[in-house]
Amino acid sequence: MYSTSGVLFLTLVLSATLVNGMKLPNTRCLCIGARKDSIHPNRIEKLEVFPMSPKCDRLEIVVTLKETNEKLCLNPDSKQVKRIVGRMIQKRYSNFSFYL
């Protein structure tokens, strides 16, 4: 009796551990399909960076355009996109003073 319930309990615990450790397929990513490699920084109203998560296994960068309020996905591996993100972060935090 104890061995059967012990084996059943151990099986359930291992199954739950495996399911929690598995990544889900890319069903929840915001950026599906093609991504832009470049965009003029003056056209950007808002920049959002979404890190990898259990629901999406890649970094996503989404910008909202000033003129049309359209959302576009940018390629996070593009040199220009990396430069734009770096400059926007510097611009945002340039007015702050950090004290250690």
From TrEMBL:
<dbReference type="GO" id="GO:0042056">
    <property type="term" value="F:chemoattractant activity"/>
</dbReference>
<keyword id="KW-0202">Cytokine</keyword>
<dbReference type="InterPro" id="IPR001089">
    <property type="entry name" value="Chemokine_CXC"/>
</dbReference>
<comment type="function">
    <text>Ligand for cxcr3.2. Chemotactic for macrophages.</text>
</comment>
<dbReference type="InterPro" id="IPR018048">
    <property type="entry name" value="Chemokine_CXC_CS"/>
</dbReference>
<dbReference type="InterPro" id="IPR039809">
    <property type="entry name" value="Chemokine_b/g/d"/>
</dbReference>
<keyword id="KW-0964">Secreted</keyword>
<dbReference type="GO" id="GO:0006952">
    <property type="term" value="P:defense response"/>
</dbReference>
<comment type="similarity">
    <text>Belongs to the intercrine alpha (chemokine CxC) family.</text>
</comment>
<feature type="signal peptide">
    <location>
        <begin position="1"/>
        <end position="21"/>
    </location>
</feature>
<dbReference type="InterPro" id="IPR001811">
    <property type="entry name" value="Chemokine_IL8-like_dom"/>
</dbReference>
<keyword id="KW-0145">Chemotaxis</keyword>
<keyword id="KW-1015">Disulfide bond</keyword>
<dbReference type="InterPro" id="IPR033899">
    <property type="entry name" value="CXC_Chemokine_domain"/>
</dbReference>
<dbReference type="Pfam" id="PF00048">
    <property type="entry name" value="IL8"/>
</dbReference>
<dbReference type="GO" id="GO:0006955">
    <property type="term" value="P:immune response"/>
</dbReference>
<keyword id="KW-0732">Signal</keyword>
<protein>
    <recommendedName>
        <fullName>C-X-C motif chemokine</fullName>
    </recommendedName>
</protein>
<dbReference type="GO" id="GO:0005615">
    <property type="term" value="C:extracellular space"/>
</dbReference>
<dbReference type="InterPro" id="IPR036048">
    <property type="entry name" value="Interleukin_8-like_sf"/>
</dbReference>
<feature type="domain" description="Chemokine interleukin-8-like">
    <location>
        <begin position="26"/>
        <end position="88"/>
    </location>
</feature>
<dbReference type="GO" id="GO:0008009">
    <property type="term" value="F:chemokine activity"/>
</dbReference>
